[in-house]
Specification:
Layout (H helix, E strand, L loop, with lengths): L1 E2 L18 E16 L5 E17 L3 E5 L6 H8 L7 E8 L2 E4 L5 H8 L2 E4 L13 H12 L4 H14 L16 H13 L5 E5 L7 H18 L2 E5 L3 H7 L2 E6 L2 E7 H6 L4 H8 L6 H6 L30 H5 L6 E4 L2 E3 L6
Parallel strand pairs: 4-9, 4-10, 7-8, 8-9
Antiparallel strand pairs: 1-12, 2-3, 2-5, 5-6, 10-11, 11-13, 12-13
Length: 348
């Protein structure tokens, strides 16, 4: 077993060409939000460690799933990767013209240009669309901001985008309140596609939708990925959906990645106790297997990200914790088998 430092977190350790296909590389990424005290003169008295030193690679054309409990730092990770939040520390690189470019060092026009290559689909289709703007203005807004297309060409292009996501192009002059939740999310997807990005962060894009609509939106994302060679960071709670759509899955707990593996490998052989607990809660369609399934019930509450426990972050709730979990430093990701990384002292 080998410890992970700066080596690529590849889906297969024998993959000799891994670096050439890395689209996004994240190393030791941190995002801490300051806690301040005082009314007139404010001083920092602590920090919420929303993302606390995570590393992963995303390969061209793949979907990396990011799962975990609410408040574990999934959405913050997505926004920090896109530089919507300024990282506290760490590195985020995006490939452009065959070369990995460091986003955290970019400012002004350089970062603005790179933003065309990375976009976001937001969780809430009711809050992410401006109610005062027509669908046409919403979808064409990225084109106006980045000045990538003449105004007389935008109308036809917007209609083409609406058709591509399964909406009638005649809806271009309607407003968001005239659409259902699923239709609004399709508008958000069309907006994300406007600049023809290569990388999209999908921040729980189906969690606010009816179950009957979720499959349609997921199928649309898969079709668009195949057609446009898109790469996704797919943030979600629904573990069954993640297995369906994702090539690899990263499991987060309290600001850290505790396990990262190909989807089938993770679901069939979870190594971290937290991953095992999460997967034990997934319903099984076979009634006989459901009866035999053993649920792992975690006790206690998730610790505060402003005051995480010493040692392993999971030691306050882990059913198999032992002395090393408290005394030793955080274990960090270890490659337990080719492409399967886990942060656990028992595995190491």
């Amino acid at each position: 077993m080998s410890a992970v430092a700066d080596q690529p977190l590849a889906r297969n350790a024998a993959d000799a060409d891994a670096d050439g296909r890395v689209l996004v590389r994240v190393r030791n990424l941190k995002k801490h939000f300051p806690i301040t005290s005082g009314i007139v003169i404010q001083r920092q008295v602590g920090a919420v460690k929303a993302v606390d030193g995570i590393s992963f690679d995303i390969y061209e054309g793949e979907t990396l799933g990011l799962v975990g409990e609410s408040g574990c730092g999934k959405s913050t990770t997505g926004r920090t990767v896109l530089q919507l939040y300024e990282p506290t520390a760490g590195s985020v690189q995006l490939r452009e013209d065959g070369e990995l470019r460091e986003l955290t060092e970019m400012k002004g026009e350089d970062l603005r240009r790179m933003r065309r290559r990375m976009q976001m689909i937001f969780q809430d289709p009711y809050a992410s669309l401006n109610p005062r703007m027509s669908v046409g203005r919403i979808v064409s807004e990225p084109l106006r901001i980045h000045k990538t297309m003449e105004r007389n060409e935008q109308e036809g292009y917007v209609e083409h985008l609406l058709e591509r996501v399964g909406l009638n192009p005649y809806f271009v002059n309607r407003y968001p309140h005239e659409f259902s939740g699923g239709q609004r999310q399709r508008i958000g997807i069309a907006r994300a596609l406007a600049l023809e990005p290569g990388f999209i962060v999908a921040d729980e894009p189906i969690s606010a939708l009816d179950v009957s609509i979720q499959a349609q939106v997921v199928n649309l994302l898969e079709d668009l990925q195949e057609e446009l060679n898109l790469t996704y960071l797919f943030i979600a709670h629904d573990l069954s959906m993640v297995r369906h759509i994702c090539d690899r899955v990263a499991v987060m707990y309290l600001g850290k990645i505790v396990e990262l593996a190909p989807a089938d490998q993770l679901y069939e052989n979870p190594l971290h106790p937290y991953t095992q607990a999460l997967l034990s809660a997934v319903p099984v369609p076979d009634p006989m297997r459901e009866k035999r399934a053993q649920r792992i019930i975690l006790t206690g509450d998730v610790p505060s990200p402003s005051n995480p426990p010493e040692g392993c972050n999971f030691n306050t709730r882990c059913p198999v914790r032992f002395g090393l979990c408290y005394d030793a430093p955080d274990p960090g990701l270890i490659e337990a088998s080719p492409g399967h990384f886990v942060a656990c002292h028992r595995v190491g």
